[in-house]
Amino acid sequence: MKKIVVALVMMVVINGAFGQDAISKFFSKYQNDESFSQVTVSSKMFSLFTNMEADTPEDKEVLDAISKLKGLRILAKDDARNARDLYKEAFTLVPMKEYEELMSVRDKDKDMKFLIKEGGGKISELLMIMGGNEEFMVLSLYGEIDLKQISRIGKKMDVKGLEHLDKMDKKN
Amino acid sequence: MKTIAAGFILVFLFSTASFSQSDSFIALKEKFAYHKDVYTFSSSAFLGSALFLMAGEHEFYDAIKNIKRVGFVIVPREAFKRENVSVAGFKNVIRQDSFYELAHMKEHGDLITFYMKSTESKNNRYMILVEDHENVVAIELTGYIDPEFLLKCESHANIEKSEL
Fold first, then answer.
1. The whole model's pTM is what?
2. pLDDT tens figures, B12-46
3. CB of A114 within 8 Å of any CB in chain B?
4. What torsion do the CA atoms of B124, B22, B100, B152 make, to the nearest 10 degrees?
5. Which helix or strand (DSSP H or E) is residue A104 part of?
6. B69, B125, B137: which is closest to B99 by C-alpha?
């Protein structure tokens, strides 16, 4: 019986260790590399928007959407000669089975992919991976995500790249 | 008479500034008060916000116009070693002082952490801890900062450079 309990505990621990989100794997790998920039925004930051007054109903919707977010993590590298390699590496570290591709953008300078993780009919994570000629970025936004508001949230946070999701919304 | 009045105002400003500081900020100041190359400053935020206004930085001015007090302390890492204390230990002191972490960012090896202690009366306290290779800088602001501006500052730090 003890062995079963120990085995179960081990399984939970191992699952916890390997079940970390995609960007965590990047953080773990590159956290001591000073050429990378990292940003982590906690749920406390987003909770500040809960009781804010809005001027318009549209603003109210955006504030409500922001207050439901739980966190934002960014890993980025500028002047990266290996940006394309990092972009490819990202897809080897991201457990693609857990994500669904939402949109991809390709132009002469960069490739971008937007992936989402769904659970219980709600989007729980939006992952943006970008690899350019000299720049690389992984962005993970998690919590309860309203895709209709995400481009406007991006504008509020000045997160360039998320405005591409606005195009998708208009196409639909 | 003018000199006495000016002196009185200055003493009042600096004494109220020290009264309005958080326990953790005071603890840091006092711990390293007699160390070489430790600098501390605190005053009303009026001057800072006026400078932003004069510089035409209206977005900054609007965001920080409700900040009442500013204080900072610069402590060389060497002083932490001499006192046999760590930055991680100071972060525990900050948390015990009811500050919670809003965000942190790392760039070129420098770590910046934003903390906040909220009140109902919009008289919040914000602590910004900057750790570089040589120094640890703690900046404390008292008053209110628009959360939208705060979020923009925190998430914008390195994305700006990406120019997607």
1. 0.78
2. 444 444 446 899 999 999 999 889 899 998 877 77
3. no
4. 50
5. strand A100-106
6. B125
Please give the Cα distance from B92 to A50 (Å, whole number): 27
Q: Which of B91, B151, B156, B160 to mutate to test the interface with A (most CBs of A within 10 A)?
A: B151
The SS3 assignment for B33 reads: coil
Give the separation between CA B125 and CA B89, rounded to whole angstroms: 20
A101 touches chain B (CB under 8 A): no
CB contact under 8 A, B159 and A45: no
Q: Would you call A65 an interface residue with chain B, using a CB distance cutoff of 8 Å?
A: no
Q: Which H or E element spans position B137?
A: strand B135-143
B152 touches chain A (CB under 8 A): yes
Chain A, window 137-156: residues with a beta carbon less than 8 angstroms from a chain B beta carbon = 137, 156
Which chain B residue is nearest to residue A111, measuring alpha carbons?
B164
Residues of chain A with pLDDT under 50: 8-19, 172
Burial class (CB in 10 A: 0-12, 13-18, 19+), B87: middle
Two tokens at B61? Answer: 């001015």
CB B31 within 8 A of CB B134: no
In this structure, is the dihedral angle defined by the CA atoms of residues A143, A144, A148 and A149, taken in order, positive or negative? Answer: negative
Residue A116: count of CB within 10 angstroms of its CB? 19
Question: Between the CA atoms of A106, A104, A40 and B126, what dihedral angle is there, to the nearest 10 degrees?
Answer: 80
Q: What letter does residue B24 receive in the DSSP assignment? A: H
Q: For residue B149, which residues of chain A lie inside 8 Å, CB to CB? A: none
Q: What is the ipTM of this complex?
A: 0.77
CB B144 within 8 A of CB B67: yes
Q: Which of A161, A125, A160, A128 is nearest to A145 (CA)?
A: A125
End-to-end CA distance of chain B: 60
Confirm if B164 and A113 have CB atoms less than 8 A apart: no
Residue count of chain B: 164
Domain-wise residue ranges, chain A: 21-171
